[in-house]
Amino acid sequence: MLALLIDLFFPRMCVFCDTQKTLLCDECKNQKLEYYKTQFCHVCHADSPIEMVHSKCLRKTNLDGVIVVAHYNKYAKILIEEMKYNLYFALSAEIGLLMKRKLLEYDINYEVAIPVPLHKFKENYRGFNQAELLSKAVSARVDNCIRRTKNTKSQVSLNREERIKNLKDVFELKHQINYKSVLLVDDVMTSGSTLEECAKVLKNAGVEKVYGLVFARGD
Hints:
The protein is of the alpha/beta class and 219 residues long. The protein has two domains: 1-32, no CATH class; 40-217, 3-Layer(aba) Sandwich (Rossmann fold), CATH 3.40.50. It has eight helices and six strands, in the order ααβααβααβαββαβ. It has helices at residues 2-9, 26-32, 74-84, 91-103, 120-126, 130-138, 160-167, 193-204; strands spanning 66-71, 112-115, 146-148, 171-173, 181-189, 209-217. The strands form two sheets. Strands 1-6-5-2 form a four-stranded parallel beta sheet, with helices on both faces. It has a two-stranded antiparallel sheet with strand order 3-4. Helix 4 (91-103) packs across helix 6 (130-138). The longest helix is centred in the middle third of the chain and has 13 residues, at 91-103. 34% of the residues are buried.
C-alpha cells in the first residue's frame, strides 16, 4: 500500500526521458549506455576474450579478473551521480540488475559479494554506501567485511601514481573471514587502485579468488 501511495503522489520517471513507472526505461538502457562487448584484461587494458587476465599480467595484480558493464560515458555518469549525490538511491536496483545480468555471462563461482567500503564519516554523511546497495542487488549474500581506516581525498582529480599512494594501507578487515572465492563490488573503476587494495587485503586473509564487478569504467 505504501509503495502504491508513493507511486501515486511521486510517480517514477526515467532519469533520461519522461517515461513513467520506471527509473530507467528499456529504450534509454539500450540507446544511451555503451556496454562492453568483450572482456578486457584490467592490468594491460587489452582485450582478453579467453582469459579474464592475461597469464603474463597475473603477477601484477591481486584481482583474478574485473567485469565491467558499461563505459563511463555522460549517461553512465548521470546515473552514478544521481544515485550517489542526489539521493536517488533507488537507482541502485536498476544499475544492480544490469550488473547481475552481466555477471551471468561469466562462469564464476563466488561465495559472497563484498562492497568496496566508504569511510564511516562519508557514509554517515551520505546515509548509505552505494557499493553496498549494488551488492545487495547483485547477490543474496553480502558481507561488509572490509573497513576504510582513513578518510582519503577523492580519487577523481588524481593521476595513477597519486591514486595508488592515496589508497596505500587504508583498508583492513573488520572480522575474520573464511572464503575461498569472493566478488568485490563497486560503482566505477578508473585506474583500479581501489579494487586492487581491497583485493590485497582479501588475498592476505586467505581468499584464493577475488573478482571485481563494477558498473562503469572511466579513463
